[in-house]
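Q: Could you write out the predicted structure for this multi-component system? I'm mainly interested in how the pieces pack against one another.
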Amino acid sequence: MRWATRAGVHIDRAACAWLIRRFLDPDAEFVFVSDAAEVPADSTPFDMRGVELGHHGGDCSFETILRRHELTDPVLWRIAEIVHEADLDDERFDAPEAPGLDVVLRGLSMTGDDEHTLTISGPVFDGLYEFHRRRLLLGREPA
Amino acid sequence: MRGLWGRHRWPELRRAQTNRLSTSHCVRVDLAVQPWLHSSVSRSSADSGSPGEWVLLSYRLPREPSGPRTTLWRRLKRLGVAQLSDGLVALPADARTRESLEWLADDVLAAGGTAGLWVAQPAAVAQERELATAMAATRAAEYRDLAGSCRAATTADPAERARALRRLRGEWRAINRRDFFPPPEREEAAVALRHLAAVAAQESPAVPEAAP
């Protein structure tokens, strides 16, 4: 399946792309557009204005995708808190990882194209997922 | 692109600020002397001395319910917008400020209001300077408050001081993010915060708190 989003990927879009590939569509192909009019007809847009998988009611797009696709994995919702704070920074959640992750993603967007950002950030989110999975299972910080 | 300070500087103030900068602000100095690092928007303003681009959000929200109005107001305040008139706010244009206002425009529409997003250039440098000076003054007041809170927390008991330090560091980051035209008060707040951190580090007993 094809998925479209705005070019110039930052935290929310990088996290959404990871979520889509890992949990919704392993063969996902991403198209980056600079204008909503360029979204291919056969693709699903995300993190763009006026689309279903965008910001809604104070949620960032990552949270919206979790809701729309009824993903209830608590580890994903923990990551959603981090992405929300990194993207919106409205102090809705306590996510000390957020500022650091935001800086890493912004730096990536300065050193490579969007494909590169997704290639690098994918394993970062894998690691984040594993860390929080273990933390949840252990009930404390994993070693 | 939010981090590219100085992209929207008019030459005089930039010089004035550069003179005041300490070593901790070397990024900003670099930007000031390396205009090619600026976004395309500011390149034009830096080279020609003409006003830079601003992104404007025009909006109308129904008077009732008041919830969405309050939420919007809080979000606009957090972004540090300049209120041009009733229902019209502005930020220096870059990818991030534009995106932030785009999402807010959607929020306004979702709440039954009307919203428009514009990219505009002040017609005169003086008008832009006035706008930026007002924004800098608002930030200056926030930095002064922060510095005051830091000084007050310095004499608090150790536990309270540690809590205050965490909270004030968060506030510092939040003000920084919406600080497009850094006033000298920024440095004053930075010094007060560093002092509070130094006092807290010196006098805090070995607290068995794991988090680094």
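A: Regarding packing and overall arrangement: Chain B has two domains: 51-121, 125-203.
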